Amino acid sequence: MVLSKTSSSLRNCFFCGKQVSSGQGTMLVKNDGTVQWTCSNKCRKNLRILKRDPRKLKWTSKYVKGGVRVKK
Ligand SMILES: [Zn+2]
User: For residue 63, is it within any domain?
Assistant: First the structure.
């Protein structure tokens, strides 16, 4: 079996990093054409409305232990 690397059917949630299966999740298209997939309303809300940093939230796979170092 050959696994193709196309991202048409497999996407990862832009916020929490979880895999979003086709037919699920919400696609957000930004003004610059960037497509962001979110797996749930929770992620969508955190990304768009609350504008949280997923690296600071423990329930995302993007969480950075010890906090995020901010460049000056
Ligand atoms: Zn998510």
Answer: no
**Cα–Cα distance measured from residue 37 to residue 20, given in angstroms and rounded to the nearest whole number:** 8
Task: Give the residue ranges of DSSP H helices in 1-72.
Answer: 41-44
Task: Give the global pTM.
Answer: 0.74
69 alpha carbon to ligand 1 midpoint, in Å? 23
Please give the mean pLDDT across all residues of the chain. Answer: 86
Report yes or no on 31 lying in a domain: yes
Using the mean position of ligand 1's atoms as its centre, give its distance from the Cα of residue 16 in Å.
Answer: 4
Which residues sit opposite 20 in a β-bridge?
Answer: 11
For residue 10, the CA-to-ligand 1 centroid distance in Å is 14
Q: Is there a domain that residue 18 lies in?
A: yes
